[in-house]
Amino acid sequence: MLTPEELGPQRYRARYGRYYEEFIIGDVYEHRPGRTITEHDNIQFSLMTMNAHPLHCDKAYSSGTEFGQMLVNSALTLAIVVGMTVNDVSAQAIANLGWKEVALTHPVFAGDTLYAESEVIAKRESKSRPSQGIVTVRTTARNQDEAVVMSFERTFLVARRDQQG
Fold first, then answer.
1. Cβ neighbours of residue 134 under 8 Å, at least 6 residues apart?
2. Does 66 reside within a domain?
């Protein structure tokens, strides 16, 4: 989310993300643009992270599996989907506190375009850091055919706007 912040008369500065007060339980943020994953993305990520499973980097092997083609590394899918959420969800975050219930619900292949959305499902003020709050979102990713490919919950620590200097 690009939110212009007014600095003075007819002067604005771009600001990404939301402060604690701007998160409202039940709000859903559609993250755009989508991201098309290429075969190069998949092989580079898989080998860079030392995941040389042939399903991710061996076309001949993969063609003989039930999928008939290489699968996109699920860690790459997670990384891309999390990245897609940053502008709307965590650009003002201080720290990620955790992910849970990561579900891989549909295979992702090179050439798929992913879209994501996040729903605010919980928030509370931090007990130990009064200038910050804790927010939890549930993110769902779909491919170009609207098939849900992944979902997860993410909790992070974020600054309170009223505590900014």
1. 97, 123, 124, 125, 126, 155, 156, 157, 158
2. no
3-state secondary structure of 145: coil
Contact 94, 20 (CB under 8 A): no
Query: Would you say the C-alpha torsion 158, 32, 112, 48 has a positive or negative sign?
Result: negative
Q: Is residue 64 part of a domain?
A: no
Tell me: the pLDDT tens digits for 61-103?
A: 999 999 999 999 999 999 999 999 998 899 989 999 999 999 9
CATH code of residue 146:
3.10.129.10
By residue range, what is the domain housing residue 89?
A: 2-39+73-163
* 78 within some domain: yes
